[in-house]
Structure formats: structure tokens, C-alpha cells
Amino acid sequence: MTLLSASEQKQVAAAIAEVEQQTDAELVTVLARSSDDYTYIPLLWAGIVALLVPGAVNFLTGWFGVNGLLMAQWSAFIGLCLLVRVSGASHCLVPRAVRFWRASNLARRQFLEQNLHHTAGGTGMLIFVSEAEHYVEILVDHGISSKIENQVWESIVSDFTAKVRQGRTLEGFVDAIEACGDQLKAQVPATREKNELPNHLVIL
Predict the structure, then answer these.
(1) How many CB atoms lie within 10 A of CB 159?
(2) Residues 102 and 148 both lie in one domain
(3) 44, 105: one domain
(4) What are the pLDDT tens digits along the chain (204 aa)?
């Protein structure tokens, strides 16, 4: 999994600039490799397995004894932690709901950190992608949400998410920006010259 190259980022910026010429909306795009490192969850799973499995074996067979059981639990915990780190399987152990919750939180933090809530007329729009979670979200301020229903963005998000899963992140960004632009040009057309926020892709 690789983030976009410099030339690919320029293509995203060019797509944003083209759309913003025809709408009062301010688009910001954010791409994160991952929304969290999730270190605590693999450790939690390793701890649970290390406690339960040797304990269950000792209860059924009586093999270990007190000292042997303690050593078996420590060894299992350390071994599982090393296995998860070396194999890179951390994300596989994280429940989907937790991954999406973390990605959603990061998207909302970025909406604020990129000052999208301070645009004139409340016309800020964030297109957020977290690659590891295959998560895409579009967030808009009140100036857009009052004119365009949230359901309009759902098909754009669905299509973009499919492209992220296929490793076509650049294509997903460009297509999503153009699709959002079609809606924005119709409902939030350009009435003034402005460029309140940078057009470049923000990489986390």
C-alpha cells in the first residue's frame, strides 16, 4: 500500500482547482495511510489468549503446575505479540466497527484542523480517505448541507471506497471530486472569486 506520488497529488490539486472555478464551495482532500496504529488491540488479544489457553490446558491436564503455567502464559503472550508485529496482522485483529470509528473521528478532526468550518457562507467540503481501513467520508458545512442532502454523497462515497479497495486511490479522488463538482456547480454556483483554502492533497 503506497500513498500518492507527487505527480498524482498534482492531479488531485488540478481537479479541485477546476471545480472551485465553478462553485463557491471550498474543497479539501485528506489522505491518511491509517487512522490509528491499533497497538492496544493486538496486545489485548494476545493477553486474552495467553491467559485462557494455557490455563485451560492446565485445568484439563494438570501438565504445567504453578510455575510452569506462569511461564507458559508469559511465553504465549510474548510469542503472540512478536508474531503479530512481524506478520503485520494488526489490522486483521481490529474489529471493523473500531476501525471505522477511528477513521470517522480522524475525518472530523481534519474538518476542524483544515479550517473548513470557517469558510465564508459555510461552504467547506472535506473528502477524506483512510487507506488501511478502506474508509471514505465526505463532510460538508451548513452552507452546502442546507442545499444538498447527505444521501447525494452516498453513491460517490460507495464508488470511491470500491476504488480504494482495488488500489485505485488516485482515480477515486479525481472521480469523486468531479462528481461532487457536478452537484456543487448546480446547487452552490460560483458568485465570487475566492480561494480561502489550499487545493493540494493533505497527506497524513
Answers:
(1) 14
(2) yes
(3) no
(4) 457 888 889 999 999 999 988 998 889 999 998 777 666 666 766 777 777 777 777 777 777 776 777 787 777 777 767 676 665 556 666 677 878 888 888 999 999 988 888 888 888 899 999 988 889 999 999 989 899 988 889 999 999 999 998 988 999 999 999 999 999 998 988 887 777 777 788 888
Both 109 and 123 in one domain: the answer is yes
Query: Is the whole model's pTM more than 0.85, yes or no?
Result: no
The verdict on 109 and 74 lying in the same domain is no
Same domain, yes or no: 108 and 88: no
Report the domain count for the chain: 2
Q: How far apart are the first and last CA of the chain?
A: 14
Residue 71's domain comprises 40-93
Q: How would you classify the pairing of strands 202-203 and 135-140? A: unpaired
β partners of residue 137: 128
